Amino acid sequence: MAFETAGAAELFLLGRLLFGGVLAFTGLNHFLNDEQMIPYADAKGLPAPTAAVYGSGGLLVVSGLLVVLGAYPVIAAGALATFLVGSALTMHNFWAVPEDQQQDEMTQFLKNVALAGGAFALLAAAGTAWPYSVALGLL
Questions:
Q1: CB-based burial, 18-40: b 16+ in 10 Å, e otherwise
Q2: Is residue 4 in a domain?
């Protein structure tokens, strides 16, 4: 992937800022709204709901900030893609909830799937130098 066209590097940076920033903020919400999130995780049958909420919150904050910074893109994008697919399937299983909850869960499921697509796209770009990044990585 090359950033040779006019404005491509800046658009890629904007995409990283929006994508990573929103996910980092979402992770922060895991900590700020833990009183609502932990019972929800428990209701979904997670074996350790408190650890799941704090762990996923930490993953989202750290990985989102790494995307924003352009640091360790393989780890950041890979962790986000894995989490988002897993979360869609376990937390937003719209096919297994009462009918009055299906639309809300489907919306959240589709949001996570779309965000996972963005994470996979960033993962595909992880083998190239990201413009405006701190340039820390494994590759």
A1: ebbeebbeebeebeeebeebbee
A2: no
